[in-house]
Structure formats: C-alpha cells, structure tokens
Amino acid sequence: MTRPIADRLVELRRGFHRHPEPGWREYYTTSRLVEEIEGIGVDELAVGREAYDPDDRMAVLEDDAHDEWVERARERGAREDVLERTAGGVTGCVAVLDRGEGPTVGLRVDIDGLFIEESTDDDHEPAREGFRSETDGTVHACGHDAHMTWGLATLEAVKESDFEGRFVAFFQPAEEISGGGHPMAESRFIEGIDHLFAVHVGLDHPTGRVVAGIERPLAMAHVDASFRGTSAHAGKAPEEGDNAMQALGTAISNAYGIPRHSDGMTRVNVGYAEAGSASNVIAEHARVEAEARGETTALKEYAKSRLERAFRGAAVSHGCELEFDVVSESPRADSDPELVEHVANVARGVDGVTEVVPTADFGASEDATFLMERVQEAGGLATYLIVGTDHPTAHHTPTFDVDERSLRIGVEVLTGAVLGVGDVE
Fold this sequence. Notes:
Elements: H1 9-18, H2 27-40, E1 44-47, H3 67-75, H4 80-85, E2 93-99, E3 104-110, H5 125-129, H6 144-160, E4 165-172, H7 181-185, E5 195-201, E6 209-215, E7 219-228, H8 244-255, E8 266-275, E9 285-294, H9 297-317, E10 321-330, H10 337-348, E11 355-361, H11 368-377, E12 381-387, H12 405-419
Parallel strand pairs: 3-4, 3-5, 5-12, 6-11
Antiparallel strand pairs: 1-2, 2-4, 6-12, 7-9, 7-10, 8-9
Helix pairs in contact: 1-6, 2-6, 6-12, 8-9, 10-12
GO biological process, one term: folic acid catabolic process
Binding site for Mn(2+): 142, 144, 176, 200, 396
GO molecular function: dipeptidase activity; metal ion binding; para-aminobenzoyl-glutamate hydrolase activity
C-alpha cells in the first residue's frame, strides 16, 4: 500500500514539477494522476475520451504535435493503457466518489505546464534542491503542480471521511491555452453538481492568505489570423505583389486603435507575428496570434468582433485574403456569495491561515469559468478561491516557485469546504 498523500505533499508536488507537459500533451502527467487515484480507490475513474467528448476541445493541436511528448512520457514510465486512452491529445481525467444520498460537490484543478525555460540559478529552489524541470523549455510556472497535489490530497481526504453524497474531481488539461475547460463543462460529470470549487495558488497573495472567491475574471478569446497575398520580385516588379506583411502591419495598428467601451474594461493584444520569406520578395504570407478580453462576456464579444473587423479591413486594403480563427475562448463567471462565505468560514479555522479575504478581482482569464457557468446556470453554486503562497517572482516566469507551506493549507481549506457544504445556506 502506498503512503498516504497527506504524508508526501512536497514529494508529490516536486514529482509533478520535474515533468511538466503543455496543454493537450499531458501524457505522463495523466498517467501519474491515474496511478495515484487508483491508489486512493474511487468509484469511477474516467480517463481521456472517457471523461469528455474530444470534439468539444478548444485549441486543438496538429496531429504531429504529439509524437515527441508521447515518446517522452513512455520513456518516463507512463502506462501504455493510459497512453492508449489519451491518444491524440485527449488528456486529463475525472475521479468520482459515490457516498450515497447527499449533495454533489465538484473540485476542478488544472494540470498543464508552460513553454518557458526554468531557471538554473542557485537561488532558485527547484534548481538548488534538485527538482527543476527535466523537460527543456517547459515548466510549471503557474503552480499547476501544486493544484494537482491539492486535488489528489483532497480526494484522498474525502475518501477517508464520513462524507455523504457525490464528489467529482476534475483534473483538467490545457488550461494555459484555454482548451480544456469547455469539454469538461460539456461532459456528463458536470451534471447535477450542487457546489463547485476551483482553486489557484498565489496570484500575488502571500502564504497564509486565502481569497474565498474571485470576482471579475476577464472573458477571453484567443485568435489566429493568416493573411494571404501575392508574391513578387521586390526590385523588378513590386507593383505585381499584394503585400501580406503590409496587411499585417496595418492590422496590428488597427487592433490597438479599437475604441475602449463605456460599459467596462476591454483588452486587445497582438502577442506573436511572422511574415515574409526574403528581403527581395513581396511577402505572400503573414500570420498573427492575438487575443481579445472583456470585463463581461458581452464586452469580450465586442472586442473580438472589432478585432476581426480591423483585420479584415487591413486585408482588403492591401489586396489580401484573411483567415480569422477563434482558437479558444472563455466566459466571465463570478463566485457565488453563499459559497464565498462558506470558504471564508472554513479558512478562518485552518492552522496557518493568517488572513481571509472574502473576494478579490481576478484581473486575468480562466477557463474554469466554463464549469462555473454551467453549474450556476443549472441552479448550483460555484466559487474560485485563491490559496496564497510566497512566490519569489511573478507567475509565468523562469523563477516562479511555490512556498510549500501552502500545500497543507490548501488541502485543509479545500477538504473543509467540501465536507462542510451542508452548512451552506
């Protein structure tokens, strides 16, 4: 019998940290989760396409994007049965405990890493202590290694408790590319959930602080756009070309000229662009990755539609064709006050919690809002809480790290919240 997860929180988190995998490529990660969940013993474990419909995924990758990640996972000891069940980038899993009559409670944690090269500096604890990422160019720089640890430890604690009802733990892939929340929100496992908890570590809140529920997460849309023009010799016959690079430049300028909206905050950003082939060729192709955000889902739709209009206008003005693809998006969903109050009351009784903040603005985007929205629309309650951690640098940086004191705090807050939902009015 394996040692209880509660006794090896640090060990488990560091194990996940060593082997980060990006969205829709979490093959080894899913295998490790399956092993731990089977060790806990649950009533149902759905893996990959058993957990959701692959057609509901967003930000789906090309087929050849998976091969090296599958092979790396296999070399690290991923189980063949899990690799088969997650083939084609259908990663993640859902675990269910059925404990008779009572409320249905859900917990959502995310599992993917980021394309960032982790620091090798001696003052970076993972490098100093020997659990730095072993995958070049990929790291858990947003704390999802801690989230998975919380999810497993909470599942174990609920299993060992006298909980009555149904507990569903969503181990969601592809959060960083906003791809995995939608399929899990469309799955059969979200149906009938009365109370849903989602959670994040840190986010500039120190160790000991718990935010019981976020407000104002930004609705978001990720966009890929491609301009197709006509190539020509830049010296001999430039007038014969339709310059995709010019279209791209105009599109970027137009995007940043989109008017703000009087109803609330909007954001647009062009984060990546490429164009052309050589200095003496009128560029035939150009490609851009961009995003639109809004304080509400409606404002996100405004920003997205204006972004598309700006790009199409640029394409037309330079004689180019445009492909505009919304790769992924997520809505706004706020935490419910009843569940916020419940989490706050639980957190105040947890050793190590020094400050409880009922609500805080999130200021970013999260595809857990798909699950929250689905639960709320069906009459249930949802909250997205934050368990603070002292992190030496910001999220999504090479030197991000988690204060491991927050691991136990997070488990106790989540476990107490799940077990005490009967107190929610």
